[in-house]
Design goal:
A hairpin with a 2-residue loop joins strand 6 and strand 7. This protein has 2 helices and 9 strands; from the N terminus they run αβββββββββα. The chain is an alpha+beta fold and about 170 residues long. The longest helix is centred in the first third of the chain and has 40 residues. InterPro entries: PH_bac. Pfam families: bPH_11 (PF25362). Keywords: Membrane, Transmembrane, Transmembrane helix.
């Protein structure tokens, strides 16, 4: 390789590196701006209860996919740690639903806030085959309706959740 080719290759590599850095910075800035816009809509999440009754639907292991503004399945909420996927366990109690996530704070969904539990093909950028996501639509204390998505390790467990909601 001659000197001119080497210099040209190094300049091209530097330009590509700068371009990648600028794109990453723009993505981070967009994520932060979205969080600022959503902070007022979301407000504070419901507090965890001190005690709960026996589980109505036993613990379902899987993946917390994300939370979106209802009814827009692709408008991910990024406030706090709601925008990050995590391994999770979903359990239903008479008082509500507990979503315990690895590496993130648990989410408590009070029973009176739940408006619908259904299966969906996708939510928050996670597209699956037929009925691959369990979507819980609920109303925040701020009045905003959101959908929380959960993908169970065993999709047959969805029937317990959907049946329980129908009761």
């Amino acid at each position: 390789m001659n000197t001119a080719t080497l210099v040209g290759s190094l300049i091209m590599a530097a330009v590509v590196a700068v371009l990648i850095a600028v794109l990453i910075q723009a993505m981070i800035r967009g994520w932060r701006r979205r969080a600022e816009r959503q902070a007022e809509l979301i407000g504070t999440l419901p507090a965890l209860p001190d005690t709960v009754g026996p589980a109505i639907v036993s613990a379902t292991k899987g993946l917390y996919v994300g939370t979106t503004l209802a009814p827009h399945w692709n408008d991910r909420i990024v406030v706090g740690d709601l925008g990050f996927r995590a391994k999770a366990v979903l359990t239903r109690y008479p008082e509500g639903i507990m979503l315990q996530r690895s590496g993130a704070l648990p989410i408590w969904i009070p029973d009176e806030a739940i408006t619908e539990i259904r299966t969906e093909r996708g939510i928050a950028g996670k597209a699956m085959t037929h009925e691959g996501i369990l979507a819980i639509r609920w109303r925040l204390p701020s009045g905003t309706e959101i959908d929380t998505g959960f993908r169970a390790n065993d999709r047959r467990e969805y029937s317990h959740w959907v049946e329980q909601e129908a009761v």
